[in-house]
Structure formats: C-alpha cells, structure tokens
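Researcher: Let's continue the batch. This sequence belongs to Catalase, and it's 665 residues. Same format as the previous ones, please.
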Amino acid sequence: MENNNNKKVDQLKQFTTKDEGQPLTTNHGLKLTNDEHSLTIGERGPTIMEDFHFREKMTHFDHERIPERVVHARGSGAHGVFESYGDASDITMAHFLGEKGRQTPVFVRFSTVAGSRGSAETVRDVRGFATKFYTEEGNYDLVGNNIPIFFIQDAIKFPDLIHAVKPEPHNEIPQAQSAHDTFWDFVVNNEETAHMTMWHMSDRAIPKSYRQMEGFGVNTFRFVNANGEAHFVKFHWKPVQGMESLVWDEAQKIAGKDPDFHRRDLFDQIEAGNYPEYELAVQLIPQEEEFKFDFDILDPTKIWPEELIPLRKLGKMTLNRNVDNFFAETEQIAFHVGHVVPGIDFSNDPLLQGRLFSYTDTQLIRLGGPNFHELPINRPVCPFHNNQRDGYGRMTINKGRVAYGRNGLQNDTPHVVDQKDGGYAHYQEKIEGRKVRARSVSFEDFYSQARQFWLSQTPVEQEHIIDAFCFELGKVETIEIRKAAVDMFARVDRAMAEQIAQRIGVSAPDASIEQVADLPPSDAVSILKNQVPILKAKKVGIIVDTNSNVDDLIQSLENEGVIVELISDKQGMINNREINHTLDTADPVLYDGLFVAASFTDVVQNRKMQRFADEIFNHYKALGYIAFEGMDKLYANAPGVVTAPDEFINALKMGRHFDRTDATG
Ligand code: HDE
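Model: Same format as before. Here are the structure tokens for Catalase:
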C-alpha cells in the first residue's frame, strides 16, 4: 500500500535503491566487464593481488554477518501507522496521543526469545512484540512481549535465566526449547518464576500467528501530564483479529513442515491487503495509590487484573507495508526501552531499571558502534542535533568547528530547551533509602497470581497446561528436578501437580506442601473465554479429483475472505482450476479446515488423504467431506465434522472444536 504523508516512508525512500536494469559496478562505482572469472596469470594460473574486484566482492561477503540478537534473534517485522483515538493530554503529554486522528508511522518487530536466527517459529516460547513510534518528538519504543509478566523480578538475574533456557553449553542442544534440564533447574531454584511458568505452559506460548496475539509492555511505566500529575501505567496491545493458539502436536509438526509459519503469515496477509490491527490500551494507577493493592505494582511478575484496573483505549495500529529488505530494516532495527518522549517516564521496577542499561549496550556489539541511530530504519523523522561525533560508519557531516557544549563560538548551540518547549524533564520522584542488595518483602508472594491464572482458565486450557508440564518435565533427565517442579507447582494447585507427578513418574507432592489461597479469577487472561468467531484469512484445503464440483463452496468461502487451496494427487489443472498442492507438498497442519471432495482409485493416495482428515480431526479443526468412503464410521456426529458444504463455513467460523473426543492435542 502506498502511504501518503508518511514521513518515515519518505525518509526511507532516500536510502532505497533498485538494482534492476543497471550496469554492474564495484562499490565505488566502476563499471565491470567480467564478474565470473578471477584475474589470473594464464587461464590455469594463480589469481593475482591486483584483482581489486575479486577482493572487494569476497571481502564484503566475508564480513556480511553480524552477531544475532542475544535474545529475540528470530523475528519478523512490518511498517504501519498508529492513529490516536482522542486527546489523552489528561494523562500524558505525549504529542502522538494528543489529538483524535493524529497519525504516527511505526515499525513492529515480532520475535521468539530463545531460538537462534534460523530456528523454527512455532516453538513453545514467549513472543516479542516491539514497536517503534517515529513521533514528531523523537522515537518512542514500546518493547513488549505477548505475556504480561516476566520470569524474574530483578534484571541482574537475566543472564542466568537466558543461559538456562538457551541450548545447553556442552552440546548446544536443544534449540529453541525450554524442555530441558537447565531451564527447569532454574525454575525450581527461583520460585519467582512460578507465575510466568504457568503462562509459559499455557496456550499463550504457542500463538497461531503474530496477528492473533496480545502484546504487553510488562514493566510499570509512568505517564505524566503537563501539570506534572503522574500515573503508573501498564501498556497493552489488543489484536482486532482476536486471539488464537495452536495445539501442541500441531505446533511441533509445523516447526518442521514450515519453520517460517509466522513470518510467512504476516508477510502474506500484508501483501494481500489484510492488514493486522492492534488497539493500544493502558491501565492507570494514580501516583498516590501506589500502595493500595495486595500486590506490589512495581513487581514485574504480577499482572494488574483487568477486572480491578480497567483498560483505557488510546489508539489503533495498522500494519500495512512489508519491508523491502529484511536485513536493512528488520535485522538492523534497534529498540531500547529508554527511547521515550515527554509524558512517558519510568518506574522503579527493578527489571525495567536493568533493561534501561542493556538495550543500547547490546546494539554496540550487534551493530558495531555508536552510530546505529543513523541507519535509515533507526533515524527519527524529526531533526536531531548534538555534539556527539565520529565513530565507525559515521554518515552525518556536521559542519563547523564546534563540537562541545558551553561554547561561545556558536552562541552555545545546539542549546537545551525548557519543558514547555518540548524538552524532556524526568519525573521528580522523591526517593530516600540505604544502598542495599535486597528484595522487597512486598515482592515475595510468588504463588497467588499463579493460582489465579490457573483458576481463570477453561477446563480445556487447564488440560493443555497439564499436558505442557508433562511434555516439558518429561524431557528433563534429572529426576530430582522433575520432583522439585511437582512440589513447587503443588503450591499453585495440588490436583494439577498430582496428575503431572503420576504421568512423569515421580511421587506425589509432599503432604506438607500447602496450596495458596484463591484469588477471584480474571477472565481476561483466558484465550478461549475471549474468542471471536472469525473467517477472514483462515486457510482451507480442499482435496479434489477430476469429478469434484466445489465451485460453489470455493465461491462462498472466498466471499468471506477465506484463503482456499486446492489439493490433489497430482499438480496441473482440474475443471479449469489450478491445483495448488499435491498430497505430498501440502500438509494438514498448515490449514484451519479441510474439505474432502475426492476419492482416488489409487489406494496410496487415499491413505494419504485419510491422514489429512485424521490430523485435521485430531487438531479439532473443521472437517467436511462428500465423497470419501469410510469416513462416516470414523467421524460420524463429531462436533465440527460436516457433510454439507454450507455447514462447513459455520464449522470453520467457530474455531477449534475442543468438545471432540478421541482427539490428540
Ligand atoms: Fe529484552 N532484550 N530484556 N525483554 N527484549 C533484548 O536487546 C533484556 C525483557 C524484548 O525485536 C535485547 O536489541 C533484559 C522483558 C523484546 O529487536 C537485550 C531484560 C521484555 C526484544 C534485552 C529483558 C523484553 C528484546 C537483545 C531483563 C518484555 C526484541 C537484542 C531485565 C517487556 C527487540 C536487543 C527486537 C531484546 C535485554 C527482559 C522484550 C539484550 C536485561 C521483560 C521484544 O538488550
């Protein structure tokens, strides 16, 4: 989509080049006559030093990798626009939230956390959801995740957490997984992980797509208005497309069938004009009410239940343009929680305080020096001036003799400005205390909200959590760690821990372990309680043979925005329609629903087709059929299994049919 009046798009255009149709040159502009043979002495002789073209080409290649992000290495991004719903100046000075309809260019990068750059995307993991707002007042980065809390309370433990979840150092196994001894050893030795581990074992950690997950700023920030009044604030992104998760068996299979599943979906949907949208909302606590709650509002392992502190919607983000070049944009974008604008400030959340150091620091090694703000994707769209100079890859040509503050030669410019002229003034919080290394006692309730999360889930979601624990702990080799985990999570729910214990071969939790008291459930944290029936962008496979007549079905699906792919025993055309896939190149895990309208004479093809139907059935997806002998007996009367094409659309719209029995998650 062409963005009119988008300053970021205009800025990027100045750095964008098209090579198509151009003569080949060196990096220095010299046109070349030959790019396939090195310069040698005789046709069979040695290559000579003089071959500047060979050396330039090879040197560039030798240096074309940069370190991947130490966490969130695997990611995918898109451009978009944020539009303010109204004037939020009663709570924040931020200009981009100051007027209904005000538009701000944005770039979002979604990611997994633990895996390396080439790892599969549908693994069980937290997802990153980082947004850069290119505002008139400078860049504002909202660097969030798809889970509203975190594993640890103090940033000093972050290297330990990450070392524990990454592949184990002696053999670099397993990739992009938490199902191994060191991760669970960390969990059982750090009880503050209890709440986040519950979310991590839930379907939140296996989202269906980046379009269908929520985002959270996690840490507690501060909003300040022009009168200096402050609120503590938590940020939320709510996907307009609703939420959906994979089922675990499916997630693991997709990791092999299409490791690019999430980035492909994001890219394809944006190309097709089906732009993902997310509403930005905040929870607010007035400065004076800091101590009013049963939990510490600075503790990043706690949610602020939405039922207690409601959301206020501030605007909507639409992702409407794919990158032109993955490396230049998605890989080189550099986020930092410290990139704020007037009206947005920090709290003393100890995780946030540590993050404020880490992000710029990591860019220095990743992007090779202090000038990464000059890379096109990172440049603000407003002017920037200061006395910082030089460093690797400096692009700006600063004119003049002066590069120091308090100068007479340049009228002491660039000069600072007052707050009323847009200068950033830190919130003047009064703080007194002794220098200590200690955790506040108000951070010490590790289990109440973990149990609240458990109690807030539907029975199906609870079953998935138990299955996830059994999978993860089942992969842990050290029996003592398995046992410690069962004891730890008995504090969250004894019956849950007992079931897990039985399945992973350890004794039931000790009788002396007390389950924590109940808090009122929070429906907002369940995915299934908040499901929206949706057809748009769902993907359906229809298996056809030469006798199939599915024109009407295709038409009615496509009218609803469903993507239809035809699958058959061979490629080519059937009834004037192109076959998109064979039973070998397609796979049921890549579809939201399947309609079988074929019956092949070849028994092998029929067996493959049966596998498609079984898998769709096992993953609770809509299944329709008209011609396939034998299927009646297997699936008759099961929820979401239909034999009439028009019923199929309804079954698809309702999402997964978890009320099906005999299926495997
Ligand atoms: Fe990050 N995190 N983080 N993190 N984080 C990074 O910065 C860090 C945390 C998040 O798409 C790194 O540029 C510390 C919470 C996202 O480019 C690094 C702590 C949340 C991304 C870093 C945390 C996040 C990162 C690595 C504990 C959710 C990817 C590469 C105190 C609110 C951004 C980089 C992108 C990336 C440090 C915890 C979100 C090392 C020290 C909590 C989405 O600086």
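Researcher: Any comment?
Model: The chain has three domains: 75-378, 448-529, 533-653.
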